[in-house]
Amino acid sequence: MNKNQWTYAAFGLLALCVAPFAMAALSVSIGGTTLELGATRADTLAIANAHFNIVPAQVDGQYMLFPKKGPVIVGRDTYGKPVGTITIRDNQLTRVSRNLGSFRSEDGEVAIERLISAFSRAPNDGDTPAVRTDTGQSGDASTSRVYFSYPDRAIQIVLFRPTNRAGLATIDITEQYALRPGNGNGREGRR
């Protein structure tokens, strides 16, 4: 072998040795700590126990994580609201779910039911929606938006927050249909 062949062979061997390490575990931040997908059951539970009150869920291998502030009685709940769940399968951490927040109201329940319905009617032929976010400040309020654009509609979630924080934030969920430029069929989109 000449020098170039040795160099390529060495790089190839190095790439084969490094490849398993390049596929490092995914770190997930939850409740002020970090868990590694793929970590062993023992390592995961040791880290989780140090930061959370852990309660086994009804599903085997799944655990609810509660803030470690000591027992707090909230209705029938002993620990308050969970920050999320972890799932351990085949002796390794396979899933981390973070609770992003919740609210209770009749309007909220109806809005979420409609959001789920809107997503269930969205095209499902292997295409994924285009997702876009933006934030803005206008006068005495700020807005944050997320748009899910499909070929035939867009679903938008808007958080409207008064600057003075004296008023409650408003969350609006809309499903929008519109004619596409050049469509020219004279029909309006569904509503």
Describe this structure in words.
By secondary structure, the chain is α+β, with helices and mostly antiparallel strands. It is built from 3 helices and 10 strands. The chain has helices at 3-22, 41-51, 106-121, and strands at residues 27-30, 33-36, 52-56, 62-67, 84-89, 92-98, 130-138, 141-149, 154-162, 170-176. The strands form 3 sheets. A 4-stranded antiparallel β-sheet has the order 3-4-5-6, with helices on one face. A hairpin with a 4-residue loop joins strand 8 (141-149) and strand 9. The N and C termini lie far apart (71 Å). Residues 1-23 and 184-191 have low confidence and may be disordered. Residues 134-144 have a biased composition (Polar residues). Residues 121-144 are annotated as: Disordered. Keywords: Signal. Residues 1-24 form the signal peptide.
> Which spans of ≥5 residues are poorly predicted at pLDDT below 50?
1-23, 184-191
Sequence of strands across the biggest β-sheet: 3-4-5-6
Rg, rounded, reads 24 Å
Sheet with most strands: 4 strands, antiparallel
Helix share bin? 10-25%
By DSSP (H or I, 4+ residues per run), the number of helices equals: 3
Order of helix and strand elements from N to C terminus: HEEHEEEEHEEEE
Q: Kindly state the mean pLDDT as a whole number?
A: 77
Overall shape: globular
Estimated structural class: alpha+beta
Q: What gap, in angstroms, lies between the N and C termini?
A: 71 Å
Q: How many E strands?
A: 10
Strand proportion, as a percent range, falls in 25-35%
Keywords: Signal
Biased composition (Polar residues): 134-144
Region (Disordered): 121-144
Signal peptide: 1-24
